[in-house]
Amino acid sequence: MKKGRIFSGARPTGRQHIGNYLGALQNWVRLQDEYDCIYCAVDIHALTSMTDTSQLQGNIQEMVLDWLAIGLDPKKCILFVQSHVPEVAELNTLLGMITPLSWLLRVPTFKEKVKLQPENVNYGLVGYPVLMASDIVLYKATVVPVGEDQLPHLELTREIARRFNSLFGDTFPEPQAKLTRYPLVIGLDGKSKMSKQAGNDIEIALSPEETIEKIKTAYTDPARRYRSEPGHPDKCNVYKLMGYFDSTKTGDVAEKCRKAEIGCVECKMLLAEVINAALKPIREKRAELAADPKYIAEVLADGAERARVIARETMVEVRKNMRLI
Ligand code: SF4
Predict the structure, then answer these.
(1) Which end of the chain is less packed: N or C, by CB atoms within 10 Å?
(2) Spatial distance between the Cα atoms of 152 and 160, rounded to a whole number of angstroms
(3) Which of 85, 94, 160, 169 is nearest to 129 (CA)?
(4) Angle subtended by helix axes 293-321 and 56-70, to nearest 10
(5) What pTM does this model have?
(6) Distance from C-alpha of 171 to C-alpha of 165, rounded to nearest angstrom
(7) What is the number of the ligand 1 atom nearest to the C-alpha of 239?
(8) What is the tally of helices (H) and strands (E) in the chain?
(9) Is 257 near ligand 1, meaning CB less than 6 Å away?
(10) Which domains are present in the chain?
């Protein structure tokens, strides 16, 4: 007996990096045994900041390939692409009619996006939280895994669901937050969150050699200039990354670093070794899955079909409750 239904989505950014893996995907894999999980590549959301869609399909493929390689199992969860269930667009329109504009304008991420893309402040950008709410309530998700920073977004979804229910009768569950402590994975530059745009990431799908080359560029303890100087592992991102993948190594490394018994080059090679060992089975599975190009399409088509069964049912109820039929 599963504990409830979870919905979560990610923008199709292509190949996933270890920040995605440690931050969300490992958790998704764990949750699929406890909940009915629906995981979605939110391609419509991506359009709010993308006008060139030439990479979109490729990005979806690569992302889902990583999801499957990491251990998401289409027999245990639903994996699909947001736009393949068009009911979400209808619900987005209807929820848009009951969501006060003032609620959307106060969302901090909207203001941030305006600053980030002043040349493309589109209608969809301000409505982003309504589309997010539509995703969640369309599938009647009861639980949404979120980091603390995403709580205001989920609260808005709850407010929209509450408003709908009060106007048209009980229709949607108010989804509960499942607070998840995602580690904030800092990229190889040692200062900003790991991301593709920042170019400070390590993609899961890299070869072991490419991983070594990437890690060679990593920033370490900024105060340690020479091999002979003692280092400060607590201020070193290489050390932190090592801890995420193999905490059995960190005690020894910290001690040697503090006594200047290990150099950063050697330490980075150890990190590469640890990451390559942890990702080996994922990379092997990825290569196996990639050899059958039809497989991803089949998984996503099946996922969309199963998601659509739920979505259609919800929309009949929504249209009835709103007296549209
Ligand atoms: Fe960081 Fe390792 Fe260098 Fe110490 S030896 S500063 S832990 S990379």
Answers:
(1) N
(2) 12
(3) 160
(4) 100
(5) 0.93
(6) 6
(7) 7
(8) 15, 5
(9) yes
(10) 5-185+293-321 (3.40.50.620), 208-287 (1.10.240.10)
